Structure formats: C-alpha cells, structure tokens
Amino acid sequence: MRTTDPDNSMTRLLPVDDKTVMRPSSTPLKDNKSTSSNKFDRDYSLHGTVGEGGVGRVLLGLDEKIGREVAIKEMLGQSAHLDSSLCDRFLREARITGRLEHPGVVPVYDFGLQENGAPYYVMRLIRGDTLSEKLKEFNNTTNPELALANRLSLLDRLIDICETLAYAHSKGVIHRDIKPSNVVLGAFGETIVLDWGLAKVDLDWGLEKVASQHSRPDQAQTKSDENADLTLVGDIVGTPSYMAPEQANPKFGDVDTRSDVFAIGCILYYLLIGRPPLRGNVDEILALLTSDQPMPSSRNQNQSLPPELTAICDKALNKDKSKRFANAGELADELCAYRDGRLVSTYAYSPGELLRRFVVKNKIALMAITAVLVAILIGAGLAFKFGVEAEKARKLAVIEQQNVKYEKQKVERALADVTRISNDNLTTADNALKVTKLQIDELRQAMEQVAATMSGVKKGKTLTRLLEEFLSRFPYAESFAASSAPGKIIAVAPSKYQQAIGSDTSKFEHNILVMEQRAPITSRVYMAPEGFEAITLVVPVKNGQRVSGMLSVRLKAADFFGELLSNDIRIEKRDIWVVQDDGLILFDNNPNEIGQNLFREERFQQIAELRQLAKQIILQDAGVGYYKNKSAGQAGDSQRIASWRTLQPTDNREWTIVVLEAW
C-alpha cells in the first residue's frame, strides 16, 4: 500500500501507517485517554500528550527520581500486536537513537515493554521549531534579499547536521530520510536530527545482540539478518523531494553515505533558492529523479548567490554519486571552509578573486606595512633636512615623490584598462552568444515544428520541396536532408547533393544519439566529404514513442560563425574564438587556427597560463582570464585578456564564445 504524507511528500510502501506526527505547539495538549492514570510506571508521571499518530504517540512525562521533564514515545498496544514488523521497527529506532551518543541525536534514557506488550522508550524532551517551519517563516517575507540572508543564516545549523551525520556515518549508520521536517532547532543553539527509524545500519555494529536482550518473548528467535529486514520496507524508502536517485532506482548504485550527502545538498539548495530542487507530485518527482537529466543547478541569475556555495551544492546534488562528497564529514569541511573565509576546494577561483581574497584577508597587515613605510620616509626626510645634505635630500625626496605618483598613476591606468577590456570583452561575448543562440534556436524550432506534424519520413517531391523551403529560409545552411530511421537518406537540398540519396548514416554518432534519446542532437565538428569542417543538427521525427525518421541540417562551421560574428565586434588587437566542449577551435579570426585543439596542440601546452585558461573556459560557463606569451617581433611578452560565455545549441553539446584582446 502506498501512503503519501502531503506535508513532507513522503512515500513508503508499508502495510499500515507507522508514522508518529509531532504537533508543532510547544505547550503540551491535554489528552484524557493518555492521562486517565497520572502514572506511566513507577518512575514516571504523565502530564499530557505532545504528539500522536496511527500506531504510536509521544507523552509528556516527569522523571520522578531526577525531577526532569522527559518525552515518552510509546507504541499503542493494538498496533504492536497487529503487525510485528512495526514493533520491530519501533524498537530498532530506539536502539539506533540510543547508541548514537552525539549532541545532534536525542539521548534515550530508558527502554522497555508495557504490561500489554507494547514497547516504549524515554528520551530527552526537545522544544523548538523544525528546520522546515523556520524556512517557511523566512520565505514569508516579501523582500527576496532579506529572505535569502535569513536562510543563509542557517548555514551553521546545516554544518551541525553534517557533523551529526558524519558521526553516524563513522558508526556505519546511514539515515536515509534527511529533510527539514526531521531537524529540530532548539532555542539555545541545539540542532537535533530526528527519525532514525528508516536508517540503514552496518551489520557489524552489534544491534542484533542488543535486540536479543530486549525483544519481546514471542520474538526470541530473531534471525541474524534482522537489520536488513527492518531496513527494506517496500521498494522505496525516504522522501522523494530529498531522496537520492539510488534510493529510488538501483541503476544509480547502492545506498551509502553519499545518499545522505545528496539529501543535505537538497537542503542547501533550499537555503540558496528558497525551495527544494524537485517539486510536483510524487510520481513527477520520482520520474525527474530517476531520469538521465542532471539535477537543477543552484546558480540563479536573479539573485546574487555565493559562488562557492553553489559549487558545493551542485557537487552534493550530482546524480552520479561517485562525483559527490564521499560522506557528510567532507561536505562539512567544505561548508566550514566557506564560513571561515578559507578557500573552498570545490570552487575554481579566478586570479582576480584570489587577489581580492588576499587583500581582504591581509588588510590589517598591508595597512601596517604601509604605515611603517610612510613613517620611514618621513623620518628619513627629517634626518636629511637637519643634515649637511639637507638641500640634496629635499630634491631627492621631491623626485621620489614624483616617481611614486607616476607609478601609482601607471598602476591605476593599467587596472582601469584591464577592467574596461574585461567588461567590453564580456559584453561582446554575451552579444555574440545571443545572436548565435537566436539563429540556432530559430533553425531548431522550425525543424521541430515540421517534425511534429509528420508521423514518418516518406520519399517524394513533397519532402524535397520542404527541404528546399528550409534552404531558402535559412540561406546560411549548407544543406538539409531527410532520413528514414535509423539513418538512410531519402531526400536532400540543394540538388547538387543528390548523390547522397540512399546513403546509410546510421553509424554516425549524432544519428545514434537521436535514436537513443529521441531529442535534438548537435554533432561534433567533423570533416565533410566535400572537404570542409561541418556541424550537423538533427531533429527526430516521431511516431508515438518511436523515432521513425530524422530531419538534419549541415553547417559550414567557419562560414556559419564568421557570418554571425560580424565585423563590428572585430576590432584591432581583438580575436574571436568559438570552442567546442572538448577544446576544438570551431572558429578563429586566423583561419590557420581553426581545427586546432586547446588541449592537444603542443604549442598551446607549452604556455602554462594558456593551459590554465583553457581549463577555465571548458569548466566555467562564463568568466574572465588572461595569459601572456612571447610574440614574434616583440621584445616583451604579449598579454591577452579573455572573456567568455557558453551556450548549448542542444542538451548534448556546448559551444563557448571567447573574446580576446591584447593589452
């Protein structure tokens, strides 16, 4: 039976509801049924009910021996006898919670069975709001910047969660249901992780021995693999909005410590963006979670988010768990590094960012050095003034002051030039990106609209006229073709390529990807039979869920980009590159550079700064960098400032437009 908790979007396959819901009120509620007797047993008196569910409830009690308030979680007798697995899971939660001795886990004081055979355990009474309630409260403000600042103020609490889970991971315990509603924020800085009932536990941790000592009489012969039985509750365990892909589909691998890292990444995404990364009903979330599409990135163009945190969040939310942090401890280290102002290894800093961090971090020391230097200069001037060489010293001081002023002005002009060139280049790259994206989107959308009206690709004059109409509408295209699945060409335009009809292109990488993904695909650049470097855009023609054919357009890479990147953005000392996602140069002002690869050409690899710039261009969607090189005919180094922006013509391909200017 599938049950759904609308507040937490929790999906479990359970025989009955075993969830105990804690009421948000901090004042205990009177419950006549639970307080008909004011004694729970000889050690505890009862003072009300603070939470209840279908099979259990939490009572407010007083430890008579010590005089402290406690929470008593009991399983109702009827539920304990109806389903022994619920009772086992209840006892198991108490054992796991009791053995995790950490400030972030509720301590368990007592553990036993009532006279009717129902289990119970006594734990510390926790007062406070859940992280879920606090996030909703912060999101209620109408000021987005204030809401973001309030959410980011919870970063220390998130680090506390990481450290609690790091301790659990060190003991072989994986929580499997981390979410904001399972975290309580105490009024005095406590951060408590709740609900360990779905945890996966290392069999070597010794729970079986404890279970045999405290199980009910009718369960004395417990199997040695009790731990595995209790954790495998149905096919899906967890909360879809905070569930790792491997929890929903085994094709992503086994559940391990990185599954909890994914859930923490979902909470960090909530802190940054104001909502979980995946939303919708249960089936929609599970479909997105188990698809091959990447998780949404926390980078948001409408908000100024800390780039280090977005990098940490994106790594934690990687569907490939081998690319996540190995455990919660590693994630905690990165978050602490950001909080403490240290370098975050997950984020690739630009030289400018590193310089700014150095100045900010060493501001006091730099000011002290400057003060000392000024004092030395003043002292020297006074000494010379009263010496034999007073006049000479005065003149030297004047000259020195002029030199300092000149050098200062020179540095300021250089900094202004670098800033201006970087900004101009970035604006130019952005404009070039928009023009290129507009042309590619218009071409792809036109082909998709026609493909959507076709149930198949049939040879004939109508199909040929369609391709000729495309050619007249998009004159920058070299040729259009129509193929039947999986790749036999049945029509082309213009007519000079008629000899291609009948050719089998099913082995081409881009056609194979179209058949597999049933979505538009852009090829890598390749050498066409006619002798030019070409790019092909392919759009599938579908009959239901089956690909029955393809429409494709072939572009001359150099001519296509050369036409779009018009001469008005090409000024003296400026170069324009278009780089494929593997480092291949698709376009360059210098035709001799087209077809070269930033990673494979030996002359590029000999320039250390150019190697670093190439890595930045491939790894970062947008940025600014520089490199210098010995230029022929010049005495000094040639310094070049680069700005770039990246676009995706289709989901499988990236092109980066790089604008470089000599300085």
Write the layout of secondary structure elements.
Elements: E1 2-5, E2 10-13, E3 20-22, E4 39-41, E5 44-53, E6 56-63, E7 68-75, H1 77-82, H2 84-99, E8 108-113, E9 119-124, E10 128-130, H3 131-139, H4 144-152, H5 155-170, E11 173-174, E12 183-186, E13 191-193, E14 200-201, H6 207-214, H7 226-231, H8 245-248, H9 257-273, H10 282-289, H11 307-316, H12 328-339, H13 351-361, H14 363-385, H15 390-452, H16 461-473, E15 479-484, E16 488-493, H17 509-517, E17 521-522, E18 526-527, E19 533-543, E20 546-556, H18 557-564, E21 574-580, E22 585-588, H19 602-605, H20 608-619, E23 622-630, E24 637-647, E25 655-662
Antiparallel strand pairs: 1-2, 3-5, 4-5, 5-6, 6-7, 7-9, 8-9, 10-12, 11-14, 12-13, 15-16, 15-20, 17-19, 18-19, 19-20, 21-22, 21-25, 23-24, 24-25
Would you kindly provide a written description of the structure presented here, covering whatever features stand out?
The chain folds into 4 domains: 12-124, Phosphorylase Kinase, domain 1 (2-Layer Sandwich), CATH 3.30.200.20; 129-198 and 233-339, Orthogonal Bundle (Transferase(Phosphotransferase), domain 1); 437-559, PAS domain (Beta-Lactamase, 2-Layer Sandwich); 562-662, Beta-Lactamase (2-Layer Sandwich), CATH 3.30.450.20. It is flat, with a radius of gyration of 33 Å. It starts with a strand and ends with a strand. It is an alpha+beta fold and 663 residues long.
List keywords for this structure.
663 residues; alpha+beta; Phosphorylase Kinase, domain 1; Transferase(Phosphotransferase), domain 1; Beta-Lactamase; 7-stranded antiparallel β-sheet; 6-stranded antiparallel β-sheet; flat
